Structure formats: C-alpha cells, structure tokens
Amino acid sequence: MSYAYVTRGLVLVSVLCLWSSTPCGGQDLEKLLRQFPSYDIVSSKVKNEGAGRERDAIRAFDALSRHWREGLPARLKENLFERLSNSCVAGWQYLFNHTAPGSKSPVLPIPPLPLGYYALDAFGKPPGAGYLQGNTYAYGSYDECLATDHTQYCNGPLDVVNIATTPPSVLAQFKLGMCLPQECSKKDIEILINDTNVVLYRFLSDRQFFFYMNMSLTYCQAERKPPLNAGAIVMIVVSLLFALMVALGTFTDWLVKVTATGSQNAAVQVSEKTLLLGGTVKKEEKKFEPIIIDLITAFSLFKTVPTILATKQPPSAITSINGMRVLSMFWVILCHTHLWIFLVGVRNSTIMVDVVQRWTFQAIINGFFSVDSFFFLSGLLVAYLTLRDMSRRSGRFPALMYYIHRYLRITPTYAFLLFFQWFLTVHLADGPLYPSQYGPGSPPYEACSQYWWTNFLYINNFHPWKLNEECMGWSWYLANDMQFYIVAPLMVVMLYYSLPLGLVNVGVFLFGSFIATGTIAGYYKFDANTFY
Predict the structure, then answer these.
(1) Which residues contact 259 (CB under 8 A, 6 or more apart)?
(2) How many other C-beta atoms lie within 10 A of the C-beta of residue 25?
(3) How far, in Å, CA of 431 to CA of 3, rounded?
C-alpha cells in the first residue's frame, strides 16, 4: 500500500512537471510529498522494511524527468503556450497559482494543494480495468472536476488510429473525460491532443499510431446544469399554469359539491304538520352550472383521477385487448432496456456476445413484433369503431370529423411532451453523459431545433431520413400510426358496403406491403434483425 501511494504521487507530479515551465527534479518531488500527513509514516515503514524503494522511486523519477525534458521537441516546449489561446493559458496559470484548502478527514487527510492537482486527478486515465472485456470508458471524476473552482468537464471519443495500414484504421476508441480550465476551447483541446501525438512520435520507436478526438462529438460544461433559455422558461410557465388549473379546478369542484350538499339539506327540511297531513315534498330540480364552472372543474382531481383509474368496461368493449396491451408494453420496456444498454455502453461489452447467443435472448432480438402488436390493436379498434359508427349513421362516413377528431385528440398532449423533453429534460438530472444526450448542442437537442415541425405534421418517420436525426426519435410510432389511420378508410368503408370486395381490397394492400418491404430490404441490403 505504501509503495502504491508513493507511485501515485510520482505519476501525478510527473504530469505536472512535464507541462510546467520550471525544472522539476527529485528534490522538488520529495519536498512536495512531505506535505502529505502520511508521508512520514509511509517513509518509516519503507525504511523499516529495508527496501529503500521510496528513494529509488524518487531517483528514478528524477532521471525520467530529465529524459523527457531533454527529449521533448523544441517547438513543443517553446511554442505550446504560444499556440494555445491566451485565455486558456491564463486558465492553467490560475489553476496552479491558486490553492484548494484540502481536507482534514481522518479517512484521507489531504494538505492544501493547487487547484490544478484536482483537475488532473479528475482526468480520465485510459485504459481502465477490464479493457480486454470491452471497458473503453475513462470518464474520470465528473463530480470532482465540477467541484473544483474555475474548471469545466469535457468528454468525447478518443480514437487510437493505426497509421501503418492503408487506409488508417481505428485500433480502439476510448470515451475520455477531461477536466480543463473554463477558458479552454475545443481548439485548445485539439492543440493538446496534437502535442501528445508529437511526444509519442518522439519517444515511440515504431510510431505506428496516434490519437485523434472528434471535436464535433466532444461536449463541455462548466456547470452541472445549463442556464435556462427562452424555451425552458416558457415550458416552466406553461407547466405551472397547468398545475394552477388543477389546483383551482379541484378547489372549485370541492366548493361546488359542498354548496350543493348544503342546499339539498335545507330543501328537505319540512314541518311536522306537512308530514302528518300527508303532504308531499318536492324534489329540488337539478341546477346547471355555468359553462365557466364546467371548464374549470374539468381539471379537478375529483373527476380526472377516478376516470383514469376506473376499471369498469362498457358492454361493447373488447376486454381481451387489455391483456394484449399489458403484455406488449412489458415486452417493449424489456427490449428498450437492453437497447439503451447497447447504445450507451457497458464496461464488459464482450460479455454481450455470449448473452446475445442465448436462446432466451430471441425475445429481445425479435422485439420489433412487440410494436407490431400495437399496430394490430390500433387497426382492430379503428375498424371496429368506424364500422359501428357507420352502422349508427346508416352507412354515412363522417370523413372530416374522422380526421379532425384524431388530430385534436393526440396533438396537444404530444406537443406538450415534445417541448418538455426538448427544453426541460436537461434540467432534471446531470452526469458526464447527460449534456451530450439532452443539452444544447447535443444531437437530440439540435434535431428538435431543426425538425420539431415534422412531428406535428406526422411525417417525422420520413423526414429527416435518419432515425438519430429525428426530434424525439421514439415518436416515429405516432407518425406511422397516424399514416395508417389516414389510409384506413380506403379499406374499412369498402368492408362495410361489400365484405367480399372489402376482403379483396385488403388483400391487395397486404400484397403490396409485402412487395414494397421486400424490395426496400433487398435494395438497401437490410439484415434480418439488428445483430445478424
């Protein structure tokens, strides 16, 4: 444990000395290590063991430091800070010229240290444990970085490129987390990565690979949550208005019920003489509330909650489809849980190869059928309800209201959820990957900035072409379902007037769907499923 402790200190200080502007040798390192409260304990234990490893380590570091300094290319030593932006250089100087108070914790006492030490400690250090099992994540310490004054946390894909092949190939890709001064831009990060490549070229004999970081996929944040923009403020106001309407509606509904109950009790109070003479008591006629009261109490929890939780089904309901809904929903949740694991990544990705080959995993691989069951339910209900409505109307099909009712029933709630997800989701949590998934500048956020209107026209499954460019990509189902709803009357109306001709018409549509699916899959060479 003692040797490992000293070694960690050597590694940390070696990085500092590499980039510092003053010489750094063994005496400087020993002076630095003596600041730690446990230095004397560690030193005495090492000396009692008779190994003298601590002194050997310091001397070895001294030689290593001189070797690196003498071998560094002149342009790297002299021009590094000239090529970095002035603000970034000032940021680094601030980190190493200002000291954090340290910690007096009995578990791990830490002396006062420059802020730069904490920034470097928060850096990701690839490769981490389990690399041979697919752990390519080196996010570092997100919390430590943002807790350090004057820093920002950045993460992005760091490619190790093999330049010995033609064309160059990617040997490995690490998800690297970096803790940098707030003033450093993505251009400064590129300069630091390129200088690392220069060092590698100088000291690696084979010189067959270099590092590359795609800046377009690199995200930085200086605060846990971004500031509220105009869209977020509007959605907060709208959400508060809905909450206010619920509170007002519930209170008004309660007040109306209390008032009505008092009026009824007063109305049934009759005299004893009236009852003895056999008189009759007139029932109070029901009073109709003003329309404004009906609108306000529509938001009442006394009305909405019992309606949502009601289990009573009308006689005409097809109750068996409720079981299909539940099973299909469980199936969808199960498949999407595994899907997001694959998309976001795990630390032992090679194990997934064995898991996918299990026969029980067929339910996940073929999870697309869970969505097909919802399409079946949607088509069943549209046909059933439309045929029943046409029967009540003596064969008349209300085409205009058929489409208007559908659009107005779905779109308002859909719009609220879309804008809520677009502007407010980023403020609900935080983490090293959160800004790259929800924050401004992330692909999902920018997709909504460009294509939100396609969702309200229900064409977002066609435009944009790529799924990862859609706004709220999982809403492709609503667009697909709306398109099925639009063409459904072409089959349902004919079924009402002539069952044989209607069935032939359905068969033509079904056959055309088979041909179109096969043609598209063959032309674009789609696989049978996601994995093979």
Answers:
(1) none
(2) 16
(3) 33
Residues 426/438, Cβ–Cβ less than 8 Å: yes
Note the pLDDT tens digit of each residue in 140-172: 999 999 999 999 999 888 888 887 777 878 888
| CA 197/CA 366 separation, integer angstroms | 45
Q: Is the pLDDT score of 40 beyond 80?
A: no
DSSP 228: P
Tell me the C-alpha to C-alpha distance, in Å, between residue 294 and each of 10, 263, 301: 74, 19, 13
The pTM is what?
Answer: 0.76
What are 209's strand-pairing partners?
162
- Residues 472, 419: contact at Cβ < 8 Å? no
pLDDT at 271 over 90: no
215 with 186: CB under 8 angstroms?
yes
H-type alpha helices, 268-423 = 272-276, 291-297, 301-309, 320-344, 349-356, 362-365, 368-392, 399-423
Close Cβ partners of 404 (under 8 Å, ≥ 6 residues apart): none
Distance in angstroms (rounded) separating the CA atoms of residues 54 and 3: 7
DSSP labels, 25-74: -HHHHHHHHTTSTTHHHHHHHHHHHT--HHHHHHHHHHHHHHHHHHHS-H
CA distance linking residue 461 with residue 467, whole number of Å: 8
pLDDT of residue 167: 81
What is the Cα–Cα distance from 413 to 270, expressed in whole angstroms?
51
Q: Kindly report, residue by residue over 80-136, the tens digit of the pLDDT.
A: 556 788 898 899 889 989 988 877 777 777 888 899 999 999 999 887 788 888 888
Do the beta carbons of residue 447 and residue 469 sit within 8 Å? yes
Do 432 and 155 touch, CB atoms closer than 8 A? yes
For residue 230, which of 422, 401, 29 has the smallest C-alpha distance?
A: 422
Treating both helix axes as pointing N-terminal to C-terminal, what angle do 39-49 and 2-19 enclose, rounded to 10 degrees? Answer: 120
